[in-house]
Design goal:
The structure is a single chain. This protein is of the alpha/beta class. The protein folds into 2 domains: 164 residues, NAD(P)-binding Rossmann-like Domain (Rossmann fold); 81 residues, no CATH class. The chain is 50% helix and 16% strand. The protein has an 8-stranded mixed beta sheet, with helices on both faces. α3 links the parallel β2 and β3. α8 packs across α9. It is globular. The protein starts with a helix and ends with a helix.
Length: 251
């Protein structure tokens, strides 16, 4: 991974799941690597072509040197089972989901011993990355093999990301608060809408900005944060208890 031209000629990257985040990945990797993508929706073929990405079968994508799984948590185990017998020895399997404990366990259990596994979570999305990704954060969890060092180095050097090394369990504990509460508050306030836009405070403007960054996330993202993260339910219980307590004592 030293020279971008060599990388593009020598390293193939397959993206499984070509929704909004799969396309974001493609926009930032298509100069360094030969990219191919698979998605069950044939309507995404034109989007792939615009980004210089070849659309292919799941079997073809599973033979790449690096495989990025950008599928929803609900279909994650099915994807892992489908590619397990096809992955080439020495391949690097990376996921980019919002939760890490469950996908990491699935990959470690189902994927063959001869592949490396790195669980990641880019702490941004298409909205927050609309002005570029340099300086944004990404969590990296080593699961199996030594390639996490190469992955982390590439993310830092070539994409300019701030890499946070962590474990799947610690990631989910932190994300339950960071994402769980943010998405929950955004969901509640959007249901109250339309929100005030003229007579606002700076703090409310910041809340509105945060809402704008997550309101267009696919429903699967909120589903994963709310139900697939083992710590989110406890965090939201604490939040609602605090709200009820504050309301009670304020009366």
């Amino acid at each position: 991974m030293k020279n971008s031209r060599v990388e593009k000629a020598a390293t193939s990257v397959g993206i499984i799941g070509f929704g909004a985040f799969g396309q974001l990945i493609a926009r930032h990797l298509n100069q360094q690597f030969k990219l191919i993508a698979y998605d069950p929706s044939p309507n995404l073929r034109k989007d792939a072509s615009k980004l210089g990405v070849s659309f292919a079968s799941l079997g073809q994508v599973a033979k790449c040197d690096v495989i990025v799984i950008a599928s929803p948590v609900s279909s994650f185990e099915s994807v892992a089972k489908s590619i397990a017998a096809i992955c080439r020895p020495g391949a690097i399997i990376v996921d980019v989901g919002s939760v890490k404990v469950q996908p990491s366990e699935i990959m470690d259990r189902l994927l063959p011993d001869y592949v490396s596994i790195v669980a990641t979570h880019p702490l941004f999305g298409p909205q927050s990355a609309r002005n570029g990704i340099r300086g944004l954060k990404i969590a990296v969890c080593p699961i199996r093999g030594h390639h996490h060092t190469h992955v982390a180095a590439f993310l830092r050097k070539h994409l300019g990301l701030h890499v946070i090394m962590t474990t799947p369990d610690q990631h989910d504990r932190d994300a339950a608060t960071v994402q769980g509460i943010t998405h929950l508050i955004a969901k509640v306030l959007l249901r109250m809408g339309p929100l005030p836009s003229r007579m606002t405070t700076k703090s409310f403007d910041l809340i509105s900005e945060a809402i704008s960054m997550v309101q267009h996330d696919a429903p699967e993202v909120f589903e994963a944060i709310e139900n697939a993260n083992p710590y989110t339910r406890e965090v939201t219980k604490v939040l609602w208890f605090g709200v009820r307590t504050e309301f009670h004592f304020g009366r």
